[in-house]
Amino acid sequence: MTPILEVKNLNRRFGGLKAVSDVSFAVTENQIKAVIGPNGAGKTTLFNLISGALPVDSGQVLFQGKPLQGRQPWQIATAGIARTYQNIKLFPGMTALENVMIGRHSRTRSGFIAGMLNLPRTWKEERDIREESMALLELLEIAELADSEAISLAFGQQRAVEFARALAAEPNLLLLDEPAAGLNMQETAEVARLISKIRERKITVLLVEHDMSLVMDISDEIVVLSFGQKIAEDVPTAIQQNPEVIKIYLGDGDDA
Amino acid sequence: MKRYLPLFVLLALVVLVQLVTSWTHTTYYLTQLTMSAYYSLVIIGLCLLMGYAGQISLGHAGFFAIGGYLSATLTTHNLVTYQDHTLIVLLKKSGCLVAGQDLYGGQLLVVQPWVACLVAVGVTVLIAFLIGGPVLKLKGHYLAMATLGFGTIVYRVVLANRLFGEADGISSVPPFPLLPGVAVSGGFGARVSNYYIAWGLVLIFMILLINLINSRVGRALRAIHGSEEAANAMGVNTAGYKLKIFMLSAGVAALAGVFLTHYNGGIGPSEAGVMKSVRYVAIVAVGGMASIWGALSMGVVLNFLSLRGVFGSYDDAVFGVILIVIMLFAPEGLLRLKLFTRLKKLRGGGQ
Q1: Distance of alpha carbon A168 from alpha carbon A129, whole angstroms
Q2: Which residues of B touch A111 (CB under 8 A)?
Q3: Model's pTM, two decimal places?
Q4: Most buried residue, A135, B66, B87, B110, by most Cβ within 10 Å?
Q5: Could you tell me which chain B residue has the CA closest to the CA of A123?
Q6: How many independent structural domains does chain B possess?
């Protein structure tokens, strides 16, 4: 299997803190891979480095064999990497549907002139964007919320809208930053079901997660980070047995 | 089609007002309505930048003035002394220059108004491109201050430069012949036709901008307003979009400047003043920021009242007060006050 994403000796410091230190791993196509680790292990930083939200200090991120360094987040998104946020970032003043429609941005073309003149191909494209976005809201079973203001929805619903927005980009790789954060057990089960649905669409998933049960259920492989360093990478059953992982999660009285 | 419905209402209103003023022999109102239309053009352009894309500009009077002043200079500055220069000969041959006579029968050689208009708008958009690159990296107060600085520079330049007439500005700007028999000019007989030219231009830009707002680009601009970081992560080239809407908005302001200058037959440094920029921002705010119809209606009403002299010598003060009151009591704009929202609900309408 060819890797869709390769992270090679990635480093990022914040002042004296090594947030991500010499981390390497690969994600193969159509795999669900999880990154776990205690708070402050550098998981979200790792995501920000991959999606271009933060510049890397050294090391490489290769997506479909091509390096992502020096590319803007919008270029990385257009290349086929979509993401969600731990503390949901939906657009205020826009409906749930409009938020999902923004997700189609990287897969559509109409620019300023075409927009102003509302050319036939522009409004056809606009109609397609609307229909495809609506279909995604239906897939996530929140179609009835289409016209509600996104940021006024319940937390779990907002998360679903964010999922739909990310899927609207038809990504090759989907980065999910703690998709179960702040959700109750039932909602977490929903998220697990959703992630499995995503895999059916031939989308590779890399997720950062705290919720151990979710990670163990759905992931094919797990990377464990602690203080910015990779301490283990294996299949879930092996990770559960790994003494070092048990130590950081249970031994030092952390919050897992 | 629903989005164009208000435009038909606007068109009907424009015609109705003209007919009423003609019947009642009060066509002098049309002069101020024509000028208000041009100022409103600046305001709807600024509304797109500020209300939709969330980027403030306190320098829009500067763009308006660059357009107006360039067009005025090009169409009045006598090039007779350079007429043997190869470049001038070439321009003359290509029809970019027009020859004529000044008041005293002397030879006059100036730039053709259409060419002057294109140059004026083109140069303004280029200036917007050049300053927009670095300035639009700033956010909030910092962007406000940087654009304010730009506006101040334009003001000082036109005030200090002899080419731009210093404190007197530029006068005797010729009419701008759009089509045979139709010209932008302040002549008494051209009052009605100019009223329609101005409102025709407003209608055209309302159509274009409303289309833009409802397009993929408009959605991306609103997303930038909401969260630049998230918009970027969704594939929106945020820096590029901000620059483009800034240039578009500046170009519209410059076009309004060109037309109003030919209509008035001149332009003075007060058009470039900082208070003018504040006024434009205040009117966009009163209109409800992200509401192009609010911006247009407030633009017409407030400019009309101001031009009629209703605010007397407190003119600038009135707009300052309006800005403060709106920010304190109705930051969503006057038309979104609870009273109006309730009326809207009664009518059973959404957007």
Answers
A1: 9
A2: 217
A3: 0.92
A4: B66
A5: B215
A6: 1
